[in-house]
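Case study 2.
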Amino acid sequence: MKQTNVKSATGKLGILIVGNGAVATTFMTGVLMARKGLANPVGSMTQYDKIRVGKGSEKQYLKYGDIVPLAQLSDIVFGCWDVYPQNAYQSAVYAEVLKREDIEPVRDELEQIVPMKAAFDKNYAKRLDGDNVKDAKTRWEMVELLREDIRRFKQEKACDRIVVLWAASTEIYVPINEDIFYKLETLEKAMKEDDREHIAPSMCYAYAALTEGCPFIMGAPNTTVDIPAMWELAEKTQMPIAGKDFKTGQTLVKSGFAPIIGTRCLGLNGWFSTNILGNRDGLVLDEPANFHTKEVSKLSTLETILRPEVQPDLYSDYYHKVRINYYPPRNDNKESWDNIDIYGWMNYPMQIKINFLCRDSILAAPVCLDLCLLTDLAARAGRYGTQRFLSFFLKSPMHDYTKGESAVNHLYQQYTMLKNAVREMGGFEPDEEID
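Prediction:
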C-alpha cells in the first residue's frame, strides 16, 4: 500500500441501520458468518474485486484493501432502528431469506442486536403497523432523539466511527420544494415548525447522522439527502453522503444492458419492465404513493444512457414503462421481466426478453457492505458531500440537478468512477477516462 493522506481504519466501525427487515438482517448475518469463516461475502466488490494500479512494468491488480485502508469485517459493530421490536435473529428467521443453518451459528450475536425505537410517521408508509416508535412531538424532537441514540450507541459499543445506512421501506414521494429544501436554514426551520408534509422521517435520520459526524447512505429512492439543504449540511459537517436506492436486480441489468444497445447503435422503440415480489418492501410499494417514489428512481436509469439529444435517430421516441406488483408467495425471491423492442438495419424490428429470478436481499447485502466500507473510507480520506464514485451501487445516483448536471447511470462509466476514486485515495494515478 502506498503512502496516502487517508486516515487508518483503526478501532471499531459502528454500522447503524435504519430498518431491521430482510435486507438488514441478511447483511448483518452474512458479515457475522463471513468473519467466522462460515460463509463467503460473494457479490462484494470490496472483498473480491481487483483493480489495476500503475501501467507498464508498474502494473498490478490489487484488491481494494491492498490499495486503501478499509475497515475489517472483524471491526464492524451493528445496531439498528425499526418499528417492530424483534431482535435481529427473530427478524432474520421471520424474513425467510436465509436457511436456519445459515443463521444459527451467529444466533447469539444477532439476538444482541435489538432495534432502537424508530422515528416513524405512518403517513409515509401506510402499510407498516409497528409500535416500536419514538414518541416525538415534533420533527426537531425526532432529530434530537436520534442524535442521542447515535451518541449512546457509539459510547456503549466503544466505536471509533459510525456510518448510518437506510435499509428501510420506501417512503411516499416527496417533491422538491425549493422554498424548504434549497437551504439548510429553511430545512431546519421546517423541522422546528414540525412541517410533517415536507419533512419525512428519513430526513430526520440523515440530519441526525450528519450533525453527529456520521456519513449517511440512502438505500431507498426517498428524497431525503438528494436536496441542496442536505448537501449544505454535508459540507458544513464535512461528512460524505451517498444515495439513492440500492441497485440490485432489474436496474442492475438495465444499466449494464442498455449500453450494449447504445454502443452497437441499435434503435429502441420501447422498454417494458415489470417485477413481482412479496417481502415487506413489496407490501409497502403496493401503496401507489410509495410506488411513485420507486417509479421515478427506476425510470431515470434509461434516459441518461440512451440519450435522444446524442442520437435522435435512435432514441428520440421510445416508450419506457416500469411496474412493481406485490405477490406474497414469492416473498424475497423477486422476479423481473424486461421486454425490449429494438430495431436494426433498415429499421427492421427485433425483440429482447430478459427474465431475472433474483433474490432481492442476497443481491442487496453485498451492496450494503460495500457502501458502508467505502463511505467510511471517503470520510477518512476527507471527502465530503455527494460521493458520485458510489453511483455504481445505486439505482438513482445523486447529482447536482440545480446546475443541470445529469446522473451517470451507465454501469461501465460508473465502474470507471469507482476505480479512479479508489486509485486516487490509495495514492495512485486515477488514470481511466470516462467516455
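The chain has a mean pLDDT of 94.
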